[in-house]
């Protein structure tokens, strides 16, 4: 019988740690001598995570929309080309943080792959801080967060380092109450062993049933491409002035006061800068709700214009 490729869907809110998890899994897959590939879906029209995941892993991207709504038809094409180009043990599909995992599952359940792909289940990464403060989100996003938990087969309760032990305990309890069947695990930096992921059992899902939340969340992805270095202090001032509805940013930045560019990550109001040694296109992706795109792009252009070397 032809070998079947395992498929895992990775879901979870914006910035919860999906890419971090993927890096960790791919490292372990390589160590185990297995060949794994990635299908990455991003809301923005440019991908920032591609470089973070490394060059040697088979990789396809679905950019500029969400698998579950706007670019469903492209999924089949990308899966087909991954399977025809490589002998794969596993494919990991990283969904956008705005995706509903069951709808993603629905879109990849194609008869074309019935004998080639073995769906292993949905892994949801939960950002414990975000989950703790979920009442600050819009009702639609809060509902999405809950449904991402409800439909998971394996839940990583990530960013354990950011909550107290007592809070972590309470959050585990509350998440397990929503989905008692899934395996749930507290993690920091999404550290989980491949063998525990492989123990997951996929729940029966009625993928065609009407879901409570639909994809029409008002999430936007704004992309700005910098042409030159910018002033770090002005950038940080700009960050402080952003509305709370900016949930996530990522991109590459170059500052006038430093030689090296940075990989910039922002989730839940927290900016992180990491040295980047390769020259990358200076794209910044901003994801949020009800954002004034024109104003944001204008502010960034102005910031760039006023930055002198
Ligand atoms: N403190 C802390 N930070 C973490 C942890 N796991 C991931 N992060 C950071 O959280 C940020 C977002 O992580 P990613 O792995 O990029 O999240 P993601 O879910 O892939 O993000 P999107 O694709 O934009 O939805 C990065 O800056 C990570 O370094 C954790 O356990 N603790």
Structure description:
By secondary structure, the chain is an alpha/beta fold. The protein has two domains: 193 residues, Rossmann fold (3-Layer(aba) Sandwich), CATH 3.40.50; 87 residues, 2-Layer Sandwich (Hypothetical Protein Yjia, Chain: A,domain 2). Helices cover 31% and strands 26% of the residues. It has ten helices and twelve strands. It has a seven-stranded parallel β-sheet, sandwiched between helices. It has a five-stranded antiparallel β-sheet with strand order 8-12-9-10-11, with helices on one face. The protein is globular and about 60 Å long. Bound molecules: guanosine-5'-triphosphate (GTP). Guanosine-5'-triphosphate (GTP) binds next to helix 1, strand 9 and strand 10.
